Amino acid sequence: IALIRLFSVAQGYHYAFLAVSLALLGFGASGSLLYLPVLRRHQPDLRFAGLASAAFAVACLGGYLAANYLPFDSYRLGWDSRQPLYLLVLCLALALPFLFSGLALGHLLSALAREAEIVYSWNLAGSGAGCLAAVLALPVLAGAGTVVFASLLGIIAGWFFWSGVRSREERAEDRRCGWRLAGQSAPWFVAVAGLLVLALRPPAALEVRMSPYKALSLTLHFPDARLLSTRWNAYSRVDVAESSSIRSAPGISLAYGKPFPPELGLTVDGDDLLPIVRWDGSDRQLEFTSFLPGALPYHLRPEARVLLVSPRGNLDLLTALGQGARQVQVVETNPLALEAVRVYGGKAFFDPRVQVQVEGSRSFLAGSGATYDLVVLALADSYRPVSSGAYSLLESYSYTVDAFQEYYQHLRPGGFLVATRWLQWPPSEELRAVATAIAMLDRVQGAEPVRSLAAYRTFSTFGLLVKRGELAPEEIASIREFCQERGFDLVYLPGLRPEESNLFNVYPRDEHYLGSAAILSADRSGFLKRYQYELSPATDTRPFFFHFFRLSQTPEVLDRLGKTWQPFGGSGYLVLLALLAVLLVVSLVLILLPLALARGRLARARVGPGRGLRLVVYFLLLGAGYMFIEMPLLQQFILYLGQPVYAIAGVLFALLVASGLGSLVLGKKPEALTPVLLLLGLVAVALPQALSWLSPWLLGQGQAVRVVSSVGLLLPLGFIMGVPFPLGIKVTDALAPGWIPWAWAANGCASVLASVLATMANVTWGFSWTEVGAGLFYLLGLVAIHPLARTTWSTEWNGKRSPRHSA
Questions:
Q1: Which pTM does this prediction carry?
Q2: Which CATH number fits domain 598-807: 3.10.580.10, 3.40.190.10, 1.10.3720.10, 1.20.1250.20?
């Protein structure tokens, strides 16, 4: 979890995801290494486990330093021949900590196969506790300190293993001669003390180094730039910077020629630079807001009661106040951003018309019966060229059809939903916003999209208005007048003629007007299928508003690599394909390597080729099934828990702890394997519908109830998910004990590939189909293992033969 946060700060979403894949790869590789004769141990070797734990601690800190200081630049992958080598070294460095922890766990699982359920359950319980520990540590220790804290835990684990090596006589001697025990433990205690100091006071050398292309990095390159504040919480790093280069008023009319009030820059995770206007409380400083595109809805609804969704900075709030809003309800997810604006933004949040709620907009509205004249979706992210699809993996539950419907239902009759997006060429996010609004209105009985929508564009932004009801003639006239006076181009209005668009910021062909008209026409579905980008409206089961990539774009993307300033040029989705290809090769090597090295031992094992294939398939399917449930749940529960790190920690905690408990309770009941696999298959298939039914109730609860309910919903699922692996290990132990490390490797490598495949499936088809795929994997696993399990139970676990008879 700490690495996910650090890579989100340093590089972006794709490399956070890569950290997850490499963690699984390290665990899979450990199983392969344990199959080598030099590392095989038939009895528990606590000294080996202690050394592996200490190596984890060293590799954890070393991997972080390597990631921080390697001159890897993702923007140069297309033309710099050194970058692939840097990427390989980076991947190996980050996989090493997980390889060493996997060595310790895999050795104990192999040496204690008869008690595999106990080892497995305690490991999962510790992993679940670590999820919560990371969430608690990040606000206190920040990113680097949390990584050091993980190393510290590795050293402590190593000491516990090491202290258990001595015999009973040696322990008695230790009690008589305390200095001897102290001397043996001294190196461990020194390491603990040193790491504790590093965690509490990390030196500058451990500070997270951001990508030079992030907004904060670029801003701090200006000569007069300085960092005023840096704060961490569990899910973000919030910075406030000062520079003469910060002048932000997206889409402001070129007719405005006066100076802007002074601004600071606010970034979250080093990106999405948003202005903090230092407002002194005077009306004079707010004159510029009349020339912003966001002023239009306030002309249509004077003295409006406004819901402002996730403004981050204070520009949208000042626009509301400057345009005469009667009351403004601000809903912001990040308390650090609110605190920064309060400290540096003057009097905006101290205005008596302003009320603030720290919560996600969806959960706030689900639990509120309030209605508003305007619901304003603030433009709270930086401009990102989407010709590449580089941000296609980012989920956004604020821009789904379900979200738009929630906003619409909280409008008063005649109220407006207001969305502002960046202007792209060719049009992408703008047209998807239009398609999303129309899909939402299709759900509303009696709504007429062609009479309820208005859209306009500036030189850099696209504004969309959705009225609850039909636009009146005087409102249409007011929109025309507003845009004419400020030089904004109309994109859609009821009755708009082609010659009335594309008048100020002129394109050779007005694709925004033509695209909006096509989406509002009877040929909407045909247009969406033909369009060069994927524009289907996002939903809560597929909330990837920024995913526009089609495979047909691939030739253009590859042709533009290294030739444009936007490096990924459409390859955001292709990164997953490249990663999948690399991991496929590595995983096959890890699975085939132990077979090649131990061909003789496998031939002597009491398992024929057909049985061996069934074991292979079973553990592969287990790894795939687990990840095809886990990966969509990690993203689905962001909606309920509010932040990605909370969702990741909560889902992993519930699944891992419950899986450990399931392993402990049912891990010695071989007769449970068949019904559990059958139940898992059915539950996975039914899971999407169950979450759909529960979602409205869950969203309407308070934060504490949502957290407890989410964990409670996941615990039964995790309980049964923890049973198939230890029982599969017992079947393998009965048939061929030497294959257990290989089974561990196969399961781990399948998990690596499945994590990428599940992410691709989430983006392409949505969470529901991914979870259905998980159910199919578990059912196929049942088909693979059932004959072996039945034979094993009848001949060995019923007392006819010893489980170690064939060893």
A1: 0.88
A2: 1.20.1250.20
